[in-house]
């Protein structure tokens, strides 16, 4: 990947890391299913506004529109519900750490996916190093687990696996404009989540202004903006390289959780961060390539 690609991957990781803090704020007043519905709605409206401003033609193939909407329902509506539920049992930092499994899961899925990226030795080693760092980051939670924490971890892992599969599915839409993909996918997510939220949770009663701002920000930045970048980058760099953004998001989530929510940030977690970054560098491949050139 180019330096610009890595800069965008870093930006995506930072924005994704902020989503866990925003979810934690909204969870104070809103149920997980309603959070997912509102997040999808804000993101869909933002995408439609951008699409109308850009004056891009809509696809005429109804089957394509249906497929994109189904992609959004599976890839976004479902994980958007699972993540807030898991955050009821596990801290924001630990949830982000579990998402470090995404590059490894994406690497495994892509290796067996028709036309997917094959796992090279360098990528496998980098993914393994990253996994070791993730385990070190999660050690405090593993050794001092609370009731219900396992439920939160399992739900978060399910959400991560869904994202890994969706990254590979998205490559099949490589010939479609990224804004079109994002707009219809988020519309599908919203159309699926909103009726379910109203039926199960009813109309939300939110009294805090900060909750509204966090909810809107959740739909705009870690969702609408992030996934616009994702759909543009996936055909360029592939799902495995793009998924490395999740090595960055836990660092942001842990910092924000410590600075704003008062969650503990332990020295062992700092060590885990360093190892995670090392895994990211190995997966990039340029460090190993330079070392080989120096030897020759």
Secondary structure layout plus pairing:
Layout: H1 3-26, H2 32-54, H3 62-87, H4 92-98, H5 101-112, H6 121-143, H7 149-170, H8 178-200, H9 209-242, H10 249-259, H11 267-284, H12 286-295
Mean pLDDT: 83
Tally of helical runs: 12
What is the total tally of β strands? 0
Major sheet details: none
- Which regions contain 5 or more consecutive residues with pLDDT less than 50? none
Concise account of the structure shown:
This protein is mainly α.
Notable traits:
globular; mainly alpha; 12 helices; 296 residues; 79% helix
Walk me through this protein's architecture.
There is one protein chain. The protein has helices at residues 3-26, 32-54, 62-87, 92-98, 101-112, 121-143, 149-170, 178-200, 209-242, 249-259, 267-284, 286-295. 79% of the residues lie in helices and 0% in strands. It contains twelve helices and no strands. It is an all-alpha fold.
């Amino acid at each position: 990947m180019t330096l610009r690609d890595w800069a965008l991957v870093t930006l995506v990781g930072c924005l994704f890391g902020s989503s866990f803090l925003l979810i934690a704020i909204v969870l104070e007043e809103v149920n997980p299913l309603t959070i997912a519905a509102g997040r999808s709605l804000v993101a869909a409206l933002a995408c439609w506004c951008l699409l109308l401003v850009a004056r891009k033609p809509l696809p005429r193939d109804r089957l394509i529109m249906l497929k994109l909407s189904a992609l959004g329902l599976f890839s976004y509506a479902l994980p958007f519900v699972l993540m807030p539920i898991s955050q009821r049992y596990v801290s924001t930092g630990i949830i982000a750490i579990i998402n470090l499994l995404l590059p490894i899961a994406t690497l495994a899925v892509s290796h067996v996916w028709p036309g997917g990226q094959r796992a090279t030795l360098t990528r496998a080693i980098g993914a393994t190093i990253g996994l070791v760092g993730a385990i070190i980051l999660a050690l405090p939670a593993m050794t001092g687990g609370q009731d219900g924490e396992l439920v939160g971890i399992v739900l978060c892992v399910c959400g991560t696996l869904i994202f890994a599969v969706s990254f590979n599915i998205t490559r099949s839409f490589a010939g479609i404009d990224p804004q079109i993909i994002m707009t219809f996918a988020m519309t599908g997510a919203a159309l699926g989540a909103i009726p379910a939220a109203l039926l199960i949770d009813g109309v939300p009663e939110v009294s805090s202004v900060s909750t509204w701002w966090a909810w809107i920000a959740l739909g705009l930045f870690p969702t609408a903006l992030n996934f616009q970048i994702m759909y543009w980058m996936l055909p360029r760099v592939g799902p495995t390289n793009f998924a490395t953004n999740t090595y960055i998001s836990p660092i942001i989530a842990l910092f924000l959780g410590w600075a704003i929510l008062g969650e503990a940030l332990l020295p062992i977690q700092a060590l885990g961060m360093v190892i995670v970054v090392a895994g990211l560098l190995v997966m990039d491949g340029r460090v190993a390539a330079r070392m080989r050139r120096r030897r020759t």
